[in-house]
Hints:
- The structure holds two protein chains of two kinds.
- Chain A has helices at residues 8-13, 15-31, 41-53, 68-72, 81-84, 89-98, 134-145, 192-197, 209-224, 236-249, 259-268, 274-293, and strands at residues 33-37, 57-61, 105-108, 126-129, 152-159, 162-168, 171-178, 181-188, 302-306, 311-315.
- By secondary structure, chain A is an alpha/beta fold.
- Chain A has two domains: 8-193 and 272-315, NAD(P)-binding Rossmann-like Domain (Rossmann fold); 198-268, no CATH class.
- The two termini of chain A are 30 Å apart.
- By secondary structure, chain B is an alpha/beta fold.
- An eight-stranded mixed β-sheet of chain B has the order 3-2-1-4-5-6-7-8, with helices on both faces. A six-stranded mixed β-sheet of chain B has the order 11-10-12-13-9-14, covered by helices on one side. Chain B has a two-stranded antiparallel ribbon with strand order 15-16.
- Chain B is globular and about 80 Å long.
- At the A-B interface, helix 1, helix 2, helix 3, helix 11 and helix 12 of A face helix 2, helix 3, helix 15, strand 7 and strand 8 of B.
Amino acid sequence: MDGEELTEEETALYDRQIRVWGVDAQKRLSKAHILVSGLNGTAVEFCKNMVLAGVGNLTLMDDRPVTEDVLQSNFLIPPDEAYYSGRSLDELCCESLKDFNPMVRVSIEKGDLSQFDGEFFDKFDAVVVSCCSLKIKKAINEKCRRRPRRVALYAIECRGSCGEIFIDLQNYTYIQKKSDGTAECQLKYPSLEEAISIPWRDLPRKVSKVYFAMRVIERFELSEGRKPGETSISDLPLILRLRKELCDAQSLSESHVPVSLLERMLAAGGKEHPPVCATLGGVLGQEVIKAISGKGDPLKNFFFFDTADGKGIIEDISNSSTS
Amino acid sequence: MASGSQLEAIKGAKVLMVGAGGIGCELLKTLALSGFQDIHIIDMDTIEVSNLNRQFLFRQCHVGQSKAKVARDAVLKFRPHINITPYHANVKDPEFNVEFFKQFNVVLNGLDNLDARRHVNRLCLAAEVPLVESGTTGFLGQVTVHVKGKTECYECQPKPTPKTYPVCTITSTPSKFVHCIVWAKDLLFAKLFGDKNQENDLNVRSNDGTNLTAPTEDVFERRTDEDPEQYARKIYDHVFGYNIEIALANEETWKNRNKPRPLYVRDVLPDNLIQQNGSLENCVTEESVVSSMLSLGLKNPQDIWSLSENSRIFLEALRLFIEKRQKDVGNLTFDKDDQLAVEFVTAAANIRASSFGISLHSLFEAKGIAGNIVHAVATTNAIIAGLIVIEAIKILQGDFENCRMTYCLEHPSRKMLLMPVQPFEANKSCYVCSETPLILEINTRTSKLRDFVEKIAKNKLGMNSPMIMHGSTLIFEAGDDLEEDVAANYALNIDKALAELPAPVTSGTVLTVEDLRQELSCNINIKHREEFDEEKEPDGLVLVGWIAPTQKDTRLVSNGESTSTAHPAVTEMVENSDEVGIAPAKPGTKRKLSEMSEITDNVHDITPRSSRDVNDQVNPQEVEDDNDDVDDDIVILDENPETRKKKRLQ
């Protein structure tokens, strides 16, 4: 990639990572613009990773006030009420992130992302959403997909000791490194709507159980009009009824959605487990860097992490027609 | 959020973190967020600019300050009420003894070198404190758990040592750029700017080993009245011209090799350019950084310079060392953060490469190879830190059954990017955590006690203050606080051959080597041997006994080409030379398996393997559960791809 060279300052700061992904990738990163909507612990970890990596622009959106739950997984905000009260989460995170790397422009955007015009998304290379309902995620995903230039979408969900990342790179072409040279590789990603509409029986055998559990709880929150994470262990009876309904409709054994897993997710409620945030935020950061730089095999299209077994699993959940 | 019982275990825990670097910063943050209240952190390093891309607790204004202290202050900003005790010190210092280690419930390593890792491993074994060990390089990482009596210790598997090259490859027949770098750094740079008393193989040797170029007058010695410019040209012509001509005279060497081309300043640089070199002198003002690139107007460290540019850099850098760094000359060792040294080594390596028909490299690349710089990114460190905390919590809850070692891969293996495997059992022949004796083959008539102390006790066994006993006779101990007569006695013996010591060490002798601080003691059976292969056994000794004699020394991969690293030259340097030892599976017992790879952050002496290799060589077996609601399946590594068998672990 031609164009301006990295400055001496950039070369010195990014030395160790340029040795990982090369100068071209570093230049592409420094031109990229990323939007993060919803600042949970995982999103904050991700933001830190992108600012350190030297992304060009990072825009934050989350106008929630600071609460106890927010603070427990956030290392950007000092727990000093005099400092944070009356200020929104994005303002506070923005201020702190700016300090990490003066070469990155960090800004905030106010408003309701799901109501924004499609054109708003044009300036972004990637959009990361969390802390919102399935409905809003789908709506944002659709807007991204309708843009003339690709706007990649990443959706994160973190429930206690379990986490999920969904990725939509639409049509993605990249050069795959192989032992005997390189090959052009094309991937076709389904939208979130398409992916989760795939009948459960058609999914890959032994697909991660976290996938099913996430869908059950997500459906529950949607039908009850709850905010994400607004659940507790007392919801278990209703959740189990929903599990039965969904499994029956999809003719899948209920054993694929273990009670113990649902319990763990519900008990956490809106609280996140910081080691899970660090791990998911790291994987997500790596994926976004891959997609922006065009280097490395991107993950398609779900990633699951569960501390109970310690596995970080990639699942390709796409129709034969879309894959 | 951690569950109730987890929180209880976390709150009551006292943990020791060793290392506040790439992994350390992430780890300290995640520990604090997870609710840990009492964290001690040791790191001897100060902050550098190249740390800032991932060690996110540090800012530009902290450069030069203690990592441990700055990390503490940064974390207290978001968790003001927890206790963090920093130590700006070396973990190998005597204050961090077994008693010190005993106060902790778990030790978490985020280290960058093998020496310190081994030291911490021994202290953890002696203090019986569980250890979580970790390492990253690029997108690869690993977390392992070591609990005495339950799992292997960190040293149960032999660790790779830095790659060494046969002397004649470096001095006479380089075939890769890395050989040119080693020559430029360890021979030429050391000869010109380092300690004059060091032995140096710089000059070409003939096949009978005599030094052909040993001149009556040492060309490398600069006469006090000698013009630096003239001196630099003389050195150039000598090492790139004259020495190559001498080497060419030895026809035998070049029968099956491409002949190198002698290079002289007069051919490479037309007269006008040489003069320009001199005339540019005025441009060099009193800059804080002395740089030949700066004075020659070469800006981009990514550019590959031509032969003439390299030659100009070489002459200019050499001149600058003499004129601006005179006080350093004579006691320099190569430092990757010394700009002028990197420029000189890059240029010298490239000129040599050019002479031998090897492709040239940029300063950026050369610096990476010469400085053994291991690439590092924030994301992998964050992931690894998360995994360390997860293991630490299990240990604190006493849930050793569920502890895992986890690999962070670049390319998924059986759908897994994060692959947990069951910890390995202890190696029964490990000289560190078992009492198995070692066998040392050595020429007892020519090897001195000093060789034994330095090469075996300190280097191979990783002891800091070794004590050596022959039966009940103490023949050596290290330390500054010895009685005068004792010290004099050791001084008398240290340069004696082993067989000539007052208590002679010969075939059949059993020596006991002990380090009291590490509470490590091992017996070494001595076997006298006359001859050693100079290229294969350059140390002139062979120490065996790491791996059980029943084990086959199976090399699964030779680590030829690695495709997963962005930087082939660096890969070459960090390539693994370790072997993967495999124990035969005994029926009815859990299999003891080899470690796949050793991965480290900022490491200088350990060498990772690419994840592609990992995928190729190990065969992670997912345990098949007939019954889909069993949620406790784990992965074990099967050593033999041919005998893939499903095995159920409960």
